[in-house]
Amino acid sequence: MNEYVEAGLITGICYESDVEDQLKIRFGKGPFKKEEEVVKQPLNSVDVRRYVRRNTEKMVGIGGGKKIAVIRAVGAITSGKNGSSPVTGNTLGSESLVELIRKVRDDKRYVACLLRCNSPGGSALASDIMWSELKKLAAVKPVLASQSDVAASGG
Questions:
Q1: Catalytic one among 45, 79, 148, 153?
Q2: I want to staple 75 with a disulfide (CB 3.0 to 4.6 A). Which of 2, 12, 92, 125 is the partner?
Q3: 21 vs 8, 17, 24, CA distance in Å?
Q4: 85 given a catalytic annotation
Q5: Which residues share a beta bridge with 73?
Q6: What is the pTM of this model?
Q7: DSSP letter string over 111-155?
Q8: Domains and CATH numbers, the chain
């Protein structure tokens, strides 16, 4: 793990609940006096499919109009747009995710991005396209990636 930290790829490894607790402590709203009270509050987030479908900007607020984008990358990775079917389940389209990444990168209200990945992998080309856009975003804003139940291959 030290080699990843030294390369600047990660700051550490932790569980999803630890990430959520740290976000709540750092950016929690309200007149909380103790960290224990803050971590009991829900963390607002949005599923990438719902985000794209509604084309809204539901983000975790940190005050002063600044926001942290929370992108949930869910499904098998494919080229094109997100999709869903009873047979294959959810698909994570590279075009859909790239669109979100660019939106976060270009909007000055977003000061960071949390990418939550739950994917069995998929298309190597689509994964590479998404990775390229994430690197561009990371060059201008902090990006934190979090793995869910499945984060295989390109996930």
A1: 153
A2: 92
A3: 23, 6, 5
A4: no
A5: 117
A6: 0.58
A7: EEEEEEEEE--B-HHHHHHHHHHHHHHHTTS-EEEEEEEEE-TT-
A8: 44-151 (3.90.226.10)
